[in-house]
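User: Some background: our group keeps a shared notebook of sequences we're curious about, and every so often someone picks one and asks for a predicted structure to add to the entry. Today it's my turn. The entry only has the sequence so far, pasted here. Could you supply the structure so I can complete it?
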Amino acid sequence: MSYQEEQLCERAKAGDMAAASELVTLHYQRVYAFLRRLCGNDQDAEDLTQKTFARVWTSLASFRGRSSFSTWVHGIAYHVCIDARRKRNHLDTMTEEWWETCVAEGPSPLENTAEREMATQLYSWVETLESGVREVVHLHYYQGLSLQETAEVLGIATSTVKYRLRQALETLKAKTEKIPTN
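Assistant: Of course. Here's the predicted structure to add to the notebook entry:
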């Protein structure tokens, strides 16, 4: 955790609303993007992001800095999403329009039609992976968390994260090899 984040956390714990607001600003977009990918639609992601930060503030006193603040917040977001899934007891399928709204950082791989179709197909294949494997892909590749941070968020061993990533890559590679080339 950076010195700035550490100071913001301490100030927020002491009731400094400006520090709390700055922490939200620093982490909101990444948490929202993570939840959007997990739940499949913008409205649910917005609701879950709000619930996540509400839980963050009610739990802030328990944050001890054993992991980065980002990892801790992603862990809360993950559990908020799991709780919401249990309540709904089903996953909504992602529409084509939803995939169109996925924001890519940097140059978009969807700039030309062939890449766009492949990216859409790859995202949809990721969503067919077993839930534990899919969650690891979301956190590690989509959110950019390290192997250790991903393990902490999910409450599993780093070796399990590596195994699940290897499973995902093997599955996705096998699917891409079946695509005919022109």
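Suggested note for the entry: The CA atoms of residues 52 and 77 lie 5 Å apart. The chain has a mean pLDDT of 82.
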